[in-house]
Amino acid sequence: MRKSVVYAVPIALVTLMTAGGAHANDGILFPNVHAMRMATPVGGDFNQELVKEYKQLALFEADQMFDWFDAENHAAKGVMAEKGETPLPSNPEEWGIEDPAQLAELKLARTELLGALDAGGREIAPSEAAIAQAKYDCWVEQQEEGHQPVHIAACRDSFLIAMENLRAAMEPTVATTEVTTTFEEVAREVVYFDFDSDAITPDAQVKIDALVAEMRTLQNITLFITGHTDRAGSNEYNQALSARRAANVRAELERQGMTTGDVEDMEIDARGEQNPAVETADGVREPLNRRVEIVAQGAVTERSTVTTITAPTN
To answer: Which domains does the chain have, with CATH numbers?
Structure first.
């Protein structure tokens, strides 16, 4: 605002305000400064944060710079915010800023500030938004006075930093979950057979029944069913015997309803006397080698936290 009124103030009044009686008399002569001096803002929402910032700004102007008129102007905004009314940043066109370049810079800065505030800055980052507005008003005031370049630069730089902080606060990081699916072994069972037999034994039946129950709790399962024999008998005979054993286990799984509705596939393989569980000499009967191995592979889901940037919401 233009300060022509300053020159109409009696010298006695200025003397009174700077001669040690400022605090005692500001309630009479400058009621808004007095109100800010008494204010105890708690912070939180945008208006309460503004009260804090305008109180600091007003008391600095009054008590250190003895600029009571600008102090009263800043304090009036603090009082307004304390009442729940939201003041706007100063309009530099209403102040006595004569340099066109300085005025243009302030107008552009105000447009950016209002854009951030209206985009939700007051709600998303009330403290950062309030600091930015108060520092802007400080800049406007100092630019109008024009005779303290250090103060002008300090207010301007503080505003620019505050705007960077406001923009950063309005782009919060959000943790999301990224899901990765891999196929791994999720279950395994081994059933054993009598010598030279492909019939499922009672013990093998118990194991198959338990496996079926477990498979029903899983999804996207592929069963790999591999038959084996011991080393008694010829290779050709054992290869065929291991194939029959694997086929019989698969048939039992199908009989119990393990169709493609429960599993993706049931693949069988015959290894004969190759890949024994227990190494023996040729012709040796070994119960642990007379077996069918059932391996279930299924989808294993892994979740990891991913940080993304989202646009602010009001």
So the answer is: 4-173 (no CATH), 178-304 (3.30.1330.60)
